[in-house]
Amino acid sequence: MYYDDLPIWGFIGKVDREGKTDPNEYKYVLYKHIQFEIMYNKDRVIEISARMDPSSVVDLTEDKEVDVEFMYTAKWKETEIPYEKRMDKYSQTSSLPHHLEIHWFSIINSCVTVLLLTGFLATILMRVLKNDFMKYGHDEESAEDQEETGWKYIHGDVFRYPKYKSLFAAALGSGTQLFTLTIFIFLLALVGVFYPYNRGALFTSLVVIYALTSGIAGYTSTSFYLQLEGSNWVRNLLLTGCLFCGPLFLTFCFLNTVAIAYNATAALPFGTILVIVLIWTLVTAPLLVLGGIAGKNSKTEFQAPVRTTKYPREIPPLPWYRGTLPQMAMAGFLPFSAIYIELYYIFASVWGHRIYTIYSVLSIVFVILLIVTTFITIALTYFQLAAEDHQWWWRSFLCGGSTGLFIYGYCLYYYHARSDMSGFMQTSFFFGYMACICYGFFLMLGTVGYRAALLFVRHIYKSIKSE
């Protein structure tokens, strides 16, 4: 429970197992009387605790309906603790030495992964690319004698625009917006806006910042779509607006209906929904359109260092592990392994009773996640081009975003192994909202992966003479 934004925990009953080995013989009792002890300083509540009265219980062992009258008593005590320090007790629990050790251990573990991966990839790619540049940089006669192979061979196809360019541009726009939103949230957290007991601040800032950053999505999506020589930019803009908001809105409608049916406090009141809808119609949509118009007028051209041929080259048959799904599995595993320890703490605070306060650690983990995603996508893009497969656009996006799928896989593990959730409402809330969050991660990290791959591909094709 919460009292004046202070969280309180307590047991609502107990199971009497004394001297009994058979679970069928256990006694179940419910506490009827709760004793609250409230510490106050002048007109401010500083601390609250709840204790159950063991003498006032009702037996629930038999499976039948029981009418219970609940009671509570409140004892007020004066204290000298100032109001500013009332949250210290909660902050300290998440900063206990053994918790901090685990956090730092996970960060060091992730950093070692990053350094090894970065060093390994940098060494391989530098050496391989150096050899490639030397081989391709020879004078033209020797180049004509030998048949071209590898990534140089497909220079006429590598900048051929991808299929479903409207969807691709919309995904990039949404991903860029979510990336900006995440950066803003981290900055606010590090400044100290989300102190542990201000439960509504995170939700409010997510809604407001998402609304204000929608212009970024419109601009990125439309300008990129027009770079890819797309014609229907208005439809592209509509797709960008609905790509993330659409599934989120449908999920929210379904889950809010479930919460109302269960008479749960998790159901958002009509007034709040109205405010969110108004923000969407009066702020998000106009900014999206303005961003789209600015993107249309920016008229930047796609910077391709080599000319694209008229007809696409046939992709040679490749082994199964070069397919999209095996590559996504490889690409998602490493970034996920760098963040999964921190994921447990986040899940425990969002879906459990912990309070998460160590935003600095979370920021470091996020930076590590971005670095690993960038490097793994670049490496897989290079191996794909070296195998003369020029369809790297969508592949780099899917490989970058595949960490989101791994996080959803972790949700299944967390639900069964770590949480005590049960029943339709808890299950639908957990999997419904986590699906939206993981989808957001997929779009955001996919954008990061594609941008990294694009920089890399431009760089290597600039460095060779591709006549």
- DSSP strand count: 8
The arrangement of helices and strands along the chain is EEEEEEEEHHHHHHHHHHHH
Q: Indicate the low-confidence ranges by residue numbers.
A: 143-147
Task: Determine the fraction of residues in helical runs and give it as a percent range.
Answer: 55-70%
Instruction: Count the domains.
Output: 2
Mean pLDDT: 86
Family: Belongs to the nonaspanin (TM9SF) (TC 9.A.2) family.
InterPro entries: EMP70, MFS_trans_sf
Organism: Kalanchoe fedtschenkoi (Lavender scallops)
Membrane topology: Multi-pass membrane protein
Description:
With 467 residues, this protein is mostly helical. The chain has 2 domains: 2-85, no CATH class; 95-136 and 151-309 and 316-463, no CATH class. It contains 12 helices and 8 strands. The protein has helices at residues 88-94, 97-136, 140-145, 165-191, 199-212, 214-227, 233-261, 270-298, 324-350, 359-386, 393-418, 423-462; strands at residues 2-3, 6-7, 13-16, 27-31, 33-41, 44-52, 57-59, 71-78. It has a 3-stranded antiparallel β-sheet with strand order 3-4-7, with no helix packed on it. Strands 6-5-8 form a 3-stranded mixed β-sheet, with no helix packed on it. A two-stranded antiparallel sheet has the order 1-2. A hairpin with a 2-residue loop joins β5 (33-41) and β6 (44-52). The chain is elongated, with a radius of gyration of 28 Å. The chain starts with a strand and ends in a 5-residue tail after the last helix. The relative contact order is 0.12. The model is unreliable at 143-147 (pLDDT under 50). Its main location: membrane. It is a multi-pass membrane protein. Pfam families: EMP70. It is found in: Endosome membrane; Golgi apparatus membrane. Keywords: Endosome, Golgi apparatus, Membrane, Signal, Transmembrane, Transmembrane helix.
